[in-house]
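Run log, item B.
One chain of 278 residues. Sequence copied directly from the ordering sheet:
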Amino acid sequence: MNKLTPTNRLNPCPLCGDRSRDCRTSNDNLILCHGYIEQDSPISGWKWTKTSRNGVWGVHILDDGKTFDREQWEQDQLLREQQKLDRLNFLSKNALPAFERDIYYRKLSKYLGLEDHHRKDLEKRGLSKDSIDSIPYFSVNQFSSISIDIPHNLPGIGTDYSTGTPKLCVRESGYFCPSFDINGHVNGGQVRYKGDKNKYRWLKGVFSSHLPNGELPITLVRGNREQAIGNSEAREKTIAHCPLPVAFKTLPVASKTSTIYLTEGIIQAPNRSPSIRH
């Protein structure tokens, strides 16, 4: 069997339309669908065969004789829209806002610290010692126990059921790279892993990294307007006072005194400009 590929915005699930990495596709006519775990989908050309051994997916294979069931498809669409509304309503009431995330991620940074090899990795990527010390990076290990007071709805936090204490839900060791809102609050972050693929992954524990409005964090940084028109001195001054010392794509604003710099998620490297996604 060919390698299974997680769904994403460029590779949506052909059956349920998922783009959040919950489903898996392959090149040999097989789909693992999280939307249709125990039942057939209404999509023509595919049929459900069984539930995966771990109970996470329905296993679907090609079936050229199957026709499209519009009635079921419309019912499923209505159900998914309601589920999406329920999820947004839940997040608006329960997800931590940015200013609280900032408090606890900085608290974790002080508690866990940054291991030497992770610090060296950041230095190799062009960050100075002062920059690294001023940004709440911290090292994480798989299911690290946390013995300080951290809320369960902070993204990345789960519960160690043997002890009842909080733990970090990460797949392997790495380090946390924060994202910032326009006020400089840490509004989330991703873990940088060593692997060649999917190096950066959003933290996900009891709660995902989604904000109360249902969106993933973006980084917004105020800069000096002069930087946008090519003043190199102003550019260096802007970078020196930003939460992350990197090059930015600019987002023009009406203000005569500032430019807003925008990147989706964290700013990952000091030697390349992140793209602006719409």
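Observations after the first pass:
- The helical segments are 70-94, 98-112, 116-124, 129-134, 225-228, 232-241.
- The two ends are 35 Å apart (CA to CA).
Flagged for discussion on Thursday.
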